[in-house]
């Protein structure tokens, strides 16, 4: 599979067309780190390769558990072959423990275990700062066609959580919250797309409470790469 044309460069990945194949794309994971809608920028050599390996392992686990994904296979240290799909412009955030923007927005005490798994939708629009939206906003903006589509996305978010939460618990990590994105393939199937990595999740060490994700970069805690390496080591152990 040979890269052809650069179709899109996002904050964490570059998307390439594939020579002679219009059903697949190549996703190249970058070493760049951004936070707060790219107001804060950094770079960590090797981060892209770590996220590729972490996300590949997680998507494989989800596939084994019946979640359809866009991943075909990892083809190099920093690249994945993926099915082409049309990305639904929603960040689906799934939360088990209050922190981050949830605590800030609603005043819920940091680290409160939520009484149920919370699923939120954010509209993927950098110019607007990815605002939190409700179901009617999503329909009004034509992001989805019906309440049923939103129910499906919520259900998928919860299903992914029900696979990943016990998996990470068995690796000594609390899955605090995570963000997922979905795409629609040419046959109309909803596929898990993008990535699941320490860039898009919060992981706290079960014993020490130490943050093992991009909050280390957001909050200038240092040892970003060391934490990502440790997450990969535990996933593969
Ligand atoms: P938040 O508490 O900042 O809303 O973040 C919730 C989760 O979503 C957290 O695991 C980090 C992830 N996330 C992203 O992957 N991309 C983003 O742009 C934001 C804001 C959060
Ligand atoms: N990914 C977002 C950005 O680059 C925000 C974040 O993850 O904190 O700005």
Bound molecules: thymidine-5'-phosphate, aspartic acid
The domain count comes to: 2
So, the CATH homologous superfamily of the largest domain? Answer: ATP-grasp fold, B domain
- Which runs of at least 5 residues are low in confidence (pLDDT < 50)? none
Q: The CATH topology of the largest domain, please?
A: D-amino Acid Aminotransferase, Chain A, domain 1
Shape: globular
The class by helix and strand makeup works out as alpha+beta
CATH architecture assignment of the largest domain? 2-Layer Sandwich
The top-level CATH class of the largest domain is: Alpha Beta
Rounded to the nearest angstrom, the distance between the terminal CA atoms is 30 Å
**What's the main sheet like?**
7 strands, antiparallel
Radius of gyration: 17 Å
Order of helices and strands: EEEEEHEEEEHEEHHEEEHH
> Roughly how much helix do the residues carry, as a percent range?
25-40%
Family: Belongs to the SAICAR synthetase family.
Catalytic activity: 5-amino-1-(5-phospho-D-ribosyl)imidazole-4-carboxylate + L-aspartate + ATP = (2S)-2-[5-amino-1-(5-phospho-beta-D-ribosyl)imidazole-4-carboxamido]succinate + ADP + phosphate + 2 H(+)
EC number: 6.3.2.6
Keywords: ATP-binding, Ligase, Nucleotide-binding, Purine biosynthesis
């Amino acid at each position: 599979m040979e890269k052809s044309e650069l179709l899109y460069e996002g904050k964490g990945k570059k998307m390439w067309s594939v020579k002679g194949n219009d059903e697949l794309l190549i996703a190249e994971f970058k070493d760049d780190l951004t936070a707060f809608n790219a107001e804060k920028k950094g770079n960590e050599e090797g981060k892209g390769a770590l996220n590729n390996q972490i996300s590949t392992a997680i998507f494989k686990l989800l596939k084994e558990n019946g979640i359809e994904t866009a991943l075909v296979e990892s083809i190099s240290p920093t690249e994945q072959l993926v099915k082409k799909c049309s990305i639904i412009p929603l960040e689906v955030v799934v939360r088990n423990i209050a922190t981050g923007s949830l605590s800030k927005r609603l005043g819920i005490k940091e680290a409160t275990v939520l009484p149920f798994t919370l699923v939120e939708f954010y509209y993927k629009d950098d110019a607007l700062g990815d605002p939190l939206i409700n179901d009617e906003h999503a329909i009004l903006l034509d992001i989805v066609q019906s309440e049923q589509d939103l129910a499906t996305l919520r259900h998928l978010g919860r299903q992914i959580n029900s696979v990943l939460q016990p998996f990470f618990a068995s690796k000594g990590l609390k899955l605090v919250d995570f963000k997922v994105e979905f795409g629609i393939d040419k046959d109309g199937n909803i596929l898990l797309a993008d990535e699941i990595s320490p860039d898009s999740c919060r992981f706290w060490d079960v014993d020490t409470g130490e943050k093992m994700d991009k909050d280390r970069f957001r909050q200038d805690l240092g040892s970003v790469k060391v934490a990502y390496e440790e997450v990969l080591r535990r996933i593969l152990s």
